[in-house]
Amino acid sequence: MDVTDRISVNSSQALTPTLSNNNQSTKVARTRRLRVPDKPNYPLNLWSIIKNCIGKDLSKIPMPVNFNEPLSMLQRLTEDFEYSEILDKAAQCKDACEQLAYVTAFTISSYSTTSNRTGKPFNPLLGETYECDRTDDLGWRCVNEQVSHHPPMAAQYCEGRGWRCW
């Protein structure tokens, strides 16, 4: 492991691995990124995009890369668990109708950020994986893998406090 390597971890639980080099040890503190960088503002020539689209199927039109969000579809799938406390409440319910209402509310909660989204995420590569561990703050962890390219399909497994989703 190189001293310059960094990973994202919860800042309240910073890891301090010990690296040994010629009987000397060096401690490296790892911290979680505090903010996502702003989207770069590239100039856009709309005419050059439109003239390449004449006579083409809308699904086959190449779009500039800056139209995409700076994340993978696997990351975006994991964002649905941001309101996992609703599933935590559903897991504690004894009444099946009340539990169904909580699960329905959780399903609808994934649309809360769609009004602010203008770009689409990048398509993951076949075999690409994404793991998100939020057990410290939200009590769940999730693992995703892109299992098919045509048609695009991802496998997802997430477990939290008293519930599992796959």
UniProtKB/TrEMBL annotation:
A single GO molecular function term of this UniProt record: sterol binding
PROSITE patterns assigned to the protein according to its UniProt record, in alphabetical order: OSBP
Keywords for the protein's UniProt record, in alphabetical order: Lipid transport, Lipid-binding, Phosphoprotein, Transport
Highest rank taxon of the organism: Eukaryota
Compositional bias ranges of the Polar residues kind: 7-26
GO terms under cellular component: cytosol; perinuclear endoplasmic reticulum; plasma membrane
GO-annotated biological processes: lipid transport
Pfam families per record: Oxysterol_BP
Region ranges (Disordered): 1-26
Gene3D superfamilies given in the database record: 2.40.160.120
Entries under InterPro entries matching the protein: OSBP_sf, Oxysterol-bd, Oxysterol-bd_CS
Family under the similarity heading: Belongs to the OSBP family.
Protein name: Oxysterol-binding protein
UniProt source species: Culex pipiens
